[in-house]
């Protein structure tokens, strides 16, 4: 005969499980939502401020969490090319670098940016820089005003694309008003005003 624990014991057990799950969620969220920028971002923006964060999902599957870091000038959506900022993506699953480059090119094309030759060149350059990623990998892109973009893998520099048109088009994927992820854009720009 199976014995069931008394009602009080079941309640206590459920309470402990719920508190443990809550603590795990808080620790997970706080580890990514920290107010202090990673060292490579702090070095680029000094001082760096977290503008906003959010997640990108595709058909319900989480692809990555994103954070937008800005400097003292903040981010001006009227003149986005004027301020240096960093976009950090923490991937939730394994993806090939080639696929990340292809998807980036497709998103730029959907925004109507770049011509056929530019899109081909940009994809080729991204394929040379973007590595394969796994769960927990961080890819950071730093916008260099009127110059280009610098990329980091888990805090280590992996390459640059010194083409101002590319940099504007690339970061437009997340920050342009016509982005295909408007909710993520809103979350990223939540605190982007000048400090």
TrEMBL record:
Output the Pfam families linked to this UniProt entry: Chalcone_3 (PF16036)
What UniProt keywords are attached to this protein's entry?
A: Isomerase, Signal
GO MF assignments:
isomerase activity
Q: Where is the signal peptide?
A: 1-33
Using the record's annotation, list all stretches that form the Chalcone isomerase domain: 49-189
Q: What is the protein's given name?
A: Chalcone isomerase family protein
